[in-house]
Amino acid sequence: MIRRLGSVPVKDVRIADAAYPAPFRGGLEFSAPARGTWNIVHTGMLVPEAHEIFVCAQGCLRGVVLTAAEMGASERFSTVAVRENNVTDGDLEDSLIEGVSDILEKLPKKPPAVLVYTSCIHHFMGADLSHIYKTLRARFPEIDFTDCYMNPIMRKSGLTPDQLMRRQLYSLLHGAPKRDKTVLIAGNDFQTDDDGDFVSHLRQYGWEIYEIQRTKTYAEYQTLAGASLCLTNQLAAIPGGELLKSRFGMPHLHLPLSFDYAEIVTHYRTFCDAAGIPYPDFVALTERCEDALDAAKQAIGDAPVEIDYTVTSRPLSLARMLLSHGFRITRVYLDGISGEEWADFEALQKTSPDLCLSPTVDPVMRVRPRETGEMTLAVGQKAAYFTGSDRFVNLVENGGLYGFAAVYGMADLMRDAWQTPKDARSLIQIKGMGCSSCL
Amino acid sequence: MLKIAVYGKGGIGKSTTVSNLSAALAMRGVKVMQIGCDPKADSTALLRGPEPMKTVLDLVRERKNDFTLEDMVRTGFGGVICCEAGGPSPGTGCAGRGIIAALEKLAERGAFDTYRPDVVFYDVLGDVVCGGFTMPMRPGYAEKVFVVTSGENMSIHAAANIAMAVEGFRGRGYAEFAGLILNRRGVKNEDEKVAELAEDIHSSVIGSLSRSQTVLEAEELGRTVIEAFPESAMAQEYRLLAEAVMRAAGGNV
Questions:
Q1: Is B144 among the catalytic positions?
Q2: Structural domain boundaries in chain B
């Protein structure tokens, strides 16, 4: 019997009843057309002057080709199409080597580094990637090659393509003389906010911030290996931090972004102790956050607020903090709950048992009415799409906020979003928000 | 640690031969690990007894990532560490991909670092039909390849193909071809035919086994000849072959 999809109610779940870490059943997935989050093309382009080569079946190349074109980076992007005969003729490896070589020979100028993205077919067929890279390195000794993956079948097993991509950003580093008082903040798409308290505090004590986004040439990028400390602040960045630690002996601190004062203070202390610098004035910073939250609350009042997971790596921490400050959080859109959010999840189950969790990838979300019946503040692009609200925080993946700035910065953005409606449709359809060369 | 892959035409007696080699070496105090790379998952049956064991791919299928190295192995006769890669049901899936996944899983779990075997045997399914079957030859896996063959034409043909595959991968730092093992089937001019093959592929016959009822009787008992009939002439042949394999692979007993 054919059943109209629209008649199927979305099974929202009260947080008190939600299973951890997967509150919703997996299956066919819908991708909301809120396209501001980055993909592996955007992230790879963070390596300055590097060239990306995707090796994949032609149909699957469409998306990455469009990404590169949309971000105006087609000249740093090439593809090698895999065809059936590469499997039947057994030349999957040779065609990759010859295809990449051909591209490099034809480029007007050889790039200093090449990111080669292999795909599912190489995984299924057991292509000998070691042999492929060894051959390419021998052919082009002046070029650094690294292995990247467009392999959706690895999405939920082992390191995900996202984790691998963020790690491989640092795989091209050769090593550099150590420089004291330098911290490499690794694995984020966005540069940490220069005006935020964390960067300001470090700079006050003579510390320099190393980040891949701050490097403009491949030579500058190579200096990242000389950082005296490595800091990661989101889960997907941990493998990158561990790589830097093992390759360059860089102490790796994983201090997740948080919206909880106690957690922020703990992480600050850990970092300052490792760096040998004094702590900032936690009382003043907390007051700054409280002031920003008060101002946001005054503006937003009791209007419903809906948050989605693309805005921050800690959506439940954000919801918990806002609820504790009187905001009316009615819904959080997420498809899974990360290990770093366990304490927030458990706390919210007790303090806000009726908080509604909604999936974003359930196909029913495709036809669910996109309105809430009252003026709603959407925090994040997917929330903006699902609520149909023009009052939304246009931010993805923390947007470079960290430290106390995560709290006061978010509060400021919420207030501004409430007071200044935006054209959500035109803004959220831009792929890779904030990517420097985006259209 | 000596890592050895044994190939050969399906049904030629690879698993029986490898199991007896493992048993013979184990009786000499060598710590052996035998990894069956065949969806049938029966490579180590003569060493570990008739009870079915979970293959690596069974574990992946049933428990995702929630299993330990100990779950993947069973200790068989003489302390031989037995492991079966497993694979899809006959006629479905991709056996080669299964071997890749299983060997990667063993490496991921640090099998060699944990058990520290002196000798590892990869007992590989039949012909080298696709990329998955070269996996045991790749760097990090076997260093030496032996092929079991009889004088039957199909077996010789398969052995030649495997030798060609090994030769084709020489430049990649894959395993080296270390020799042929003649498992006699009573074919006319059998020794001469296999010697001719060895010459053609610039290798040698490093040892041979007689066609023997003892092997069949031991199999009926679900054991290796070394265990079931240690005093038999056939057991002695396996011991001599084990020594020859070790010598050809560059190891000592």
A1: no
A2: 2-248
